[in-house]
Specification:
The complex is a heterodimer of chains A (121) and B (108). Chain A has 121 residues and is mainly beta. Helices cover 0% and strands 54% of the residues of chain A. Chain A has strands at residues 3-6, 10-12, 18-25, 34-39, 46-51, 58-60, 68-73, 78-83, 92-102, 105-111, 115-119. The chains are: A mainly beta (121), B mainly beta (108). At the A-B interface, β5, β9 and β10 of A face β5 of B.
């Protein structure tokens, strides 16, 4: 079965960098784009960006330009999301989500369990 | 960016009720609209894609409808496990893949 397993919770100081991993299994890793979505405590879902695991190309939300880097390792079927210059407002649960597709429609059909990132001095 | 607005933000309902949640897009998105359910401490779960297509394994009491700018998610015969927060998402004009702010369905 399809599984996305994320790395564990992180506590970081303001200005630091965090790197979250998402290991995929149960499907062909390079055939599906992977997205990152975050959710601040008690808030809604915020799309951060995506990576094409096949070629490694990425697109990020304008809000995170210059601060977020998404990479992948095809040998381990793992994608990574690195967020730099952390501030308190980055405290959130970070999710990876696989982009499934049906003809011209797409959706996030599998999600990781989430990684809590806390930014605090 | 396309803005997605859900209403209501929260509602109270009883087991067995019929519940309707609305999602409005700031411009036409055809049927490029998905619905997710999220329970506390869990990742979102896909319910409906392409506005009205039921994801495999999702109970048939969940139905989606709409096109253009106005969409609805209806839960018929509300069950105890349906108390959760629901989000809509547009995938017509991306990036970004924008979400609605969520609708929390609580027990009356």
């Amino acid at each position: 079965q399809v599984l996305l397993v994320q790395s564990g919770a992180e506590v970081k100081k303001p200005g630091a960098l965090v790197k979250v991993s998402c290991k995929a299994s149960g499907y062909s890793f390079t055939n599906y784009y992977m997205h990152w979505v975050r959710q601040a405590p008690g808030q809604g879902l915020e799309w951060m960006g995506m990576i094409n695991p096949s070629g490694g190309s990425t697109r990020n939300a304008q809000k995170f330009q210059g601060r977020v880097t998404m990479t992948r390792d095809t040998s381990t079927s793992t994608v990574y999301m690195e967020l730099s210059s952390l501030r308190s407002e980055d405290t959130a649960v970070y999710y990876c989500a696989r982009r499934g597709r049906s003809t011209s429609w797409y959706y996030f059909d599998y999600w990781g369990q989430g990684t809590m990132v806390t930014v605090s001095s | 960016d396309i803005q997605m607005t859900q209403s209501p933000s929260s509602l109270s309902a009883s087991v067995g009720d019929r519940v309707t949640i609305t999602c409005r897009a700031s411009q036409s998105i055809s049927t490029y609209l998905n619905w997710y359910q999220q329970k506390p401490g869990k990742a979102p779960n896909l319910l409906i894609y392409a506005a009205s297509s039921l994801q495999r394994g999702v109970p048939s009491r969940f139905t989606g409808s709409g096109s253009g700018t106005d969409f609805t998610l209806t839960i018929s015969n509300l069950q105890p496990e349906d108390f959760a927060t629901y989000f809509c998402q547009q995938t017509y004009s991306t990036p970004p893949e924008t979400f609605g702010q969520g609708t929390k369905v609580e027990i009356k």
